Amino acid sequence: MPEMLQVKNRWRWDIFCTVVDNFGDIGVTWRLARQLVAEHSVAVRLWVDDLGAFEQICPEIDREASQQWQQGVEVCHWPTDWLPTEAADVVIAAFACQLPSPYMDAMAAREKPPLWMNLDYLSAEDWVIGCHGLPSVKYKSVQKYFFFPGFQKGTGGLLRESGLLERRRQFQQNPEAQREFLQGLGIDRAPSAQLISLFAYENAGLASWLDTMAADSTPTHLLVPEGRILGDVERWLGVDGLAAGAVHVREALTVQVLPFVRQDQYDHLLWCCDFNAVRGEDSFVRAQWAGRPLLWHIYRQDEDIHLDKLDAFLALYVKGLSEPAREAISGLWRTWNAGHDMSDHWLATRKHWPELQKHAEAWCLEQALQADLAAALVQFYVNWI
To answer: 353, exposed or middle or buried, with CB in 10 Å at 0-12, 13-18, 19+?
Structure first.
């Protein structure tokens, strides 16, 4: 073990991230980089082409710096004009981004080629298991490998820091800690109100959902972090220029706009809420670790192939639910992602709330039985060398 630790301490990893969807790409790679440093004692350089988006989830970022250190990670701005740079022992191209040609030549020039991995998008589709860990293209002497996060044995698992679920459990069992956190964001939750977070892309189905919550006998406090869905919220409210701090009440529904918060604060927000609507990949995984019912707005892709990914996940997620609960939550997800009327599906979901709450926690604990993504990446490298 001491010898392995000595070797591990010399490992150098480069992670490349091109910001495509504002926060999902950088959210995943930033979380992964920090965990590799903190829990696996490796040196990590995180190359990012958009430090402005990065600053939203890590306010300490200096968007003008070409190189800086944040939480033990060397953060480098990915320049348009690439300068000569020594290649690392492990190179991760996040989400199939194209590495700079000079860097690829530097990989090939190493005496021992690096392990080059394409960290792909998260999917529950069956074919992922068969492709995970397989060799991909080759550049000169350097072989690239597929590495797929996933929900089933035979994949790379999900990002999950050590002790995360215990910290979540303690927080959710501490009403005072939750109250203090929410008050820190300017949220005064009514005792009888259900708390829902909404982080989503533009969605034509939102108005029908808001109408249904406003007319409900149970009050709802809807928390909306600043983002792309705000335009739809403004249209429903009939106002312009919604910004952080705005609070509007319509019948049983209170809508409150929150500032975009850093990752650890967003975790706590998800833990406080009774239901979380999330988007993309990073927030989708974090909502599952919250152990609460959720709604996923998947990133739209050409020819609607994203809907295949949605159905593949639902096929796994709804196992163990009664047929009425399964139909309710599946209908809600599909309707939301189609931008259709949400009313009937939301009311059906509310009827099965206790069952869906228990199921969300059971799903969380089931996923936690797998190795986490960072540990799986490290183990893949150990096996490779």
So the answer is: middle
Domain with CATH 3.40.50 in the chain: 2-159+371-384, 164-367
Taking residues 14-30, report their average pLDDT.
85
Read off the pLDDT of each residue in 142-150 and give the average, rounded to a whole number: 97
Residue 19 has pLDDT above 90, yes or no: no
Given a contact cutoff of 8 angstroms between Cβ atoms, the answer to whether 214 and 247 are in contact is no
Q: What is the tens place of the pLDDT at every residue in 91-102? A: 999 998 999 999
Q: Residue 31's CB: how many other CB atoms inside 10 A?
A: 20
CATH entry, 2-159+371-384, from 3.40.50, 2.60.40, 2.30.29, 2.120.10: 3.40.50
Find out whether 120 and 95 touch, Cβ atoms under 8 Å.
Answer: yes
What are the residues facing 253 on neighbouring strands?
220, 250
Beta-carbon neighbour count of residue 71 at 10 Å? 12
- 52-60's contacts with Cβ under 8 Å and 24+ in sequence apart are 53/19, 53/22, 53/23, 53/26, 54/19, 54/26, 54/30, 56/22, 56/23, 56/260, 57/23, 57/26, 57/27, 57/30, 57/260, 57/262, 57/263, 57/266, 58/30, 58/262, 58/263, 59/262
DSSP 8-state assignment for residue 95: T
CB atoms within 10 A of CB 300: 13
**What architecture is domain 164-367?**
3-Layer(aba) Sandwich (3.40)
Do the Cβ atoms of 296 and 286 come closer than 8 Å?
A: no
Query: Which residues have a catalytic role annotated?
Result: 25, 281
Mean pLDDT of the 114-120 span: 96
